[in-house]
Amino acid sequence: MKAIGWYVEEYGIAQVSANLTNIVETPVHVVFDEAVKSAHNRGLRVTGSELVGLIPKKCLLDAGKYFLEKQQLSSGQSDEELIHIAVKSLGLDDLKPFNPQEKIIEYKLESQGQSLTDLTIRDFTNLTASDAPAPGGGSIAALSGALGASLGAMVANLSIGRKGLEAKWKFYSDWANAGQVLKEKLLFYINEDTAAFNKVMDAFRLPKATEEEKALRKATIQQANKYAALIPFQVMETAYQGFDLLETMAKEGNPNSITDAGVGALCIHTAIEGAGLNVLINTGGIEDEAFNTDLKAKVANLRSLSTQRKNEILAFVEGKI
Q1: What is the DSSP code string of 203-233?
Q2: Backbone angles phi, psi at 99, to 5 degrees
Q3: Which of 3, 137, 142, 152 has the fewest CB atoms within 10 Å, i.e. the most exposed one?
Q4: Neighbour tally for 206: CB within 10 Å
């Protein structure tokens, strides 16, 4: 960190201006807290802070988690909530409004087009119900998994501070974080499944006037079909991790939310079954038999394991209600 301080007559305050050259070793929230301590030792207080330029999203996510855990609260929150906590805790909106879309690097670099996950629930379902070929079953499967992971994170968060469970706040916070990570991965696959479908469509539109063009077109189609099969398989693998979260929350979480854990398990199972169907239909256009045989075997195994885990969790839930 490189920093300098001076007194600003216009505002009647002292200002510390810092350039952070290694945000992993010296995060933004650590610098802020040290400034707070320094001010306190002089009988003063820090009123806020200002960001000049852009900032990596991770800096604000880490800051949000840091300030929540200082209060022994769950840091397993959405990116949006963590950023909100960071902005308020760092006082980034003290001098003027802080717009994450304009100040966070990743948000500035995102394409101007609206992704599926940016749509409202009504718009998303309307688009799904239209004659547009995407989003389809693959995206819906990923959405089901994201909802299941979200329910697991919710139960974890609702368990923090509950009478008799106060000492386990970090345990629940860690599980809530795990749920948030799974949710974000599965939200990514909502868009990626549609992108994979579009790759297949683009491949079929390639020219085929010459033998060279035909060969290139065929190879591109095969590559696109493999990708379109692998994306829903990755949905299956990612969603399956949600069973550990939901089983733990069903058994150790807030008992008043046990049915939420059960519904989450059903969502995870739906994601795995639905994504599995999409894997299988996409293998129909793949000529690589060894690839198909291996992938189908993995799909069958995950579907079987999913059924077993889902039944076990539901049996436990129903035995408690």
Answers
A1: HHTS--SSHHHHHHHHHHHHHHHHHHHHHHH
A2: -105, 105
A3: 3
A4: 14
Q: What are phi and psi of 41, to 5 degrees?
A: -65, -20
CATH number attached to the domain at 2-109: 3.30.70.670
Report residue 27 as tokens.
Answer: 């995060």
- Written as six digits, the tokens of 271 are 């994601």
- Alpha-carbon distances, residue 313 vs 243, 254, 260, 302 (angstroms): 8, 15, 11, 16
Q: Quote the CA–CA distance of 292 and 226 in Å, as a whole number.
A: 9
What's the one-letter identity of residue 255? P
Residues sharing a CB contact under 8 Å with residue 225, sequence separation 6 or more, in sequence order? 200, 282, 283, 285, 286
- d(C-alpha 256, C-alpha 248), whole Å: 14
Q: Quick check: 238 pLDDT over 70?
A: yes
- Confidence class for position 114, pLDDT limits 50, 70, 90: low
pLDDT of residue 89: 94
Q: Which pTM does this prediction carry?
A: 0.81
CATH architecture assigned to 116-320: Up-down Bundle (1.20)
| Burial class of 195 by CB neighbour count within 10 A (0 to 12, 13 to 18, 19+) | middle
Q: Domain coordinates of the chain in residue numbers?
A: 2-109, 116-320
